[in-house]
Write the structure tokens for this entry.
Amino acid sequence: MREPRDGMRRLSWTIGGLVLAVAPHTVHLRPWITLLALTVCAWRLLAEHRGWALPGRLLRSVVALAATAAIAVSYHALTGLDAGTALLALMAALKLLETRRPRDHVVLVFIGWFLCLSTLLYGQDMVAAAWVLPAVWLLSASLLNVARAGTDDQPLRPFRTTGAMLLKALPITLILFLFFPRIAGHFWGAPSREQAATGLNEEMSPGDISELSISDTVAFRVRFDGAVPPPLQRYWRGPVMTEFDGFTWSRARAQSYFMPAVEFRGNPVSYTVTLEPTRQRMLFALDMVQEWPKEMAQQGWDYQLWTRNPINAVIQYRARSYPVFRAGIDLGAALRNRNLQLPPDRNPRARELAASMRRAAPDDESYIENVLAMFREQEFYYTLTPPRLERDSVDDFLFNTQRGFCGHFASSFTMLMRAAGIPARVVGGYQGGDWNPVGGYLIVRQSHAHAWSEVWLPRRGWTRVDPTAAVAPERVERGLDAALPDDEPVPGRLLRNSDLLWQARLVWDNVNARWNDWIVRYSDESQEQILKTLGFERPDWRHLGILLGTGLALWFAVLSAWLAWEFRRRPTDAATRNYRVFTSRLARRGIERAPHEAPRDYLARVRGFRPDLERQAAAITELYLRLRYAPAPEAGDLDLLRSLVKRFRP
Amino acid sequence: MNAFRDSTDPQRESLSAAIAQLNQVVLGKDREIRLSVACLLARGHLLIEDIPGVGKTTLAHALARVLGLTYQRVQFTSDLLPADVIGVSVYDRGSGSFQFHRGPVFAQLVLADEVNRATPKAQSALLEAMEERQVTVDGVSHPLPDPFFVVATQNPSYQVGTFPLPESQLDRFLMRIELGYPAATHERALMRGRDRRDLLATLPAVLDPEMILALQQRIPELHASDALLDYVQAVVRASRDGSQFLAGLSTRAAISLLRAAQAWAFLHGNAGVLPEDLQSVLPAVVGHRLRPRDAADRRGPVEMARALVEAVPIP
């Protein structure tokens, strides 16, 4: 019979491990699941404490079926990452209701491990990994705790033991991580989630980007080969939107045009982008990109880079851009028409305004100037919390609210251009970025999301015009924080005002960037690089296998050596060492001494086999016995033994 | 070359002479005789276990004669009472008080013959006397003679009508030995030779109680090196690891083992205790203190002791 306290401890350890394992999932689990699971845990602990009976088989079955049904209804599925995790978490909690024997604990620990694994399917950032580690530790300790009952005197010992075990496993993990052959492509790819993408969309309605702007998450990081371009040139091109229905701008779908040629001028900027998973197909590059990994993405007629598959993992690519360029001098009629398209019956007042302003201006350029001047001089405000707009969004914005974010300005400006007969389009993307002096790279966050316009002018081709810059030039030059009044919430504003915190944040981001570079993005190519560095000329998976085997063998050798050292035959004095030399020489002649064999018994045996050795062997044996067991060995005994053994060559 | 032999000791000389005398009476049992003498020297008691008629009683009697000790024999039977062993207080009309009449236990060498035939009550009377080296009757303690040496014989416990000694009481015996059948040549010599009983009567005493006491005092002083103590502890530790035996050897067993080994080393003229000495006495000292872990394990005491020796490398 086990002590009741023992059962309580086992239970609380297992539950603790499970809670740790489930905790990172709570952000995407439906709240009712978390709540239910916690309730069951609490009830189970209370039941153990009070000695209540656990529910019977029928009740348990009903609850399990109901929970499964609830998940099916809630997620519209039972498989897939989200529903699967939910099912796992819930069933782990329900398993507690029948957890009595050690076997049940073992099952729970295994579920816990699996939940830890699934955490990494959601994200492989450092925090997730750092969280999973203690969870695995606690779960393993719990398993050990279940296996060994009744150690009240050292309740924390399983922790120590499993800690040591995990530490010993760490090099194995490292070797497997480094050398286990990785297969290129999507075989290892984490299953994608059925979830709205974070980041920029392929279409833009008024208000979209301002939602994004309150997110402080990192979109991508950029490392420049040379000098970092000034803020005014940091326009990261994202989705180009040409379709306008009067409210929403969207990307032109399923239409192919001839891509107008680009003329690059001046000096290029080369850089490497590490892109966080977007679950979309866009790559971001500085305008105007000239070189990028062609096997990864192709450029559309609107100069945007598209990948073949959604980006579900952290990826890295190199690109080269020319800040000064001339694009699309020869536009072509089809493309021109597309960029003039407007819904005929929408935003009538804006159309009117455009017509009158265009009439008042001598040419297109001065018309553009006038429109920008209008934004600048009239009562237009730049804010993250604009009022909601009516169906004719441009009319509503220009004549009623006059308060907006970059999307509002870009949308209205582009529409005014089109209404005046100037081909124009809205470009989404990111603008700016925080320089991280610690790591020497640029952090581009979701809060840097931006929208601007491109107009087509006869001799200059596609020209970027940022109407936001007319209203709030600080936004472009110094970032969102500077452009907004003090009473508006801006992510990280508090941080930015404290040097120390800001510094810490930059360091932290740098650590994250390294994590991405070294851990998450470690791939078959990285392995190839390592193999080449190690001197394999044409590395393939066999070499990896060799390294894998060698690495593991080496580590096991180290462990074995350590064990041998731990359990070595301790005090081996000089007499014994010499005597061992003597016995091992005889052993080579086939007269082996058993470990328990007394020296004189051994001597008798030696005498039987090799009478010729008797004198020498007897002298050595008696000297050894005297050295080791006599009250006062004579001085010089040891030297004598040494020389006798040295001369003993059977 | 023998670095340990020291043959100039007169006390040991006479001890060797005594052993030679004993060998005249009990033929072909040199090892058992030496163990018996070593047991006496280590101030322990001896249990001889074997079937009737292989010379248990003869050995005990011969020991008493040769060592010059007073000798009493108690035949244990199922109706033996404690008073039959330790003595009884009788009212003396003349003095008007109770007089204690000493039982057979008041001898320097007591032979408790077939000790497992008596009831536990009678057995425990003897065993208490062995342990306390005194007898307490009516609140008065009567010290037993010194040296005091009990030789108990026992029939194998599978024989009918026996009360096997419990483990705790077996532990009181320093050694347990078996005699076994004599070799054919010795058996023939026994058939041809004089009756042992007559022989015993003519046996001269080689030692006397004072000499034995002096020898007994020398035994614990015999050198046991750290290396040897390591070995004793390794043996004890191996018996305790639970792989072979139900319970490991006690600390008393460890000390007994050392004393017995010291006595053996003394008998053989070794200046310090050798692993050989320890291994020689080990079956006799620990055999009866071990129980196999597995109930189906039919090994006897000697086999278990041998397994223990073989499990422990000499450090």
Residues 574-647 of chain A form one domain. The CA atoms of residues 333 and 602 of chain A lie 108 Å apart. Chain A has three domains: 4-147, 203-496, 574-647. Residues 541-566 of chain A form the longest helix (26 residues).
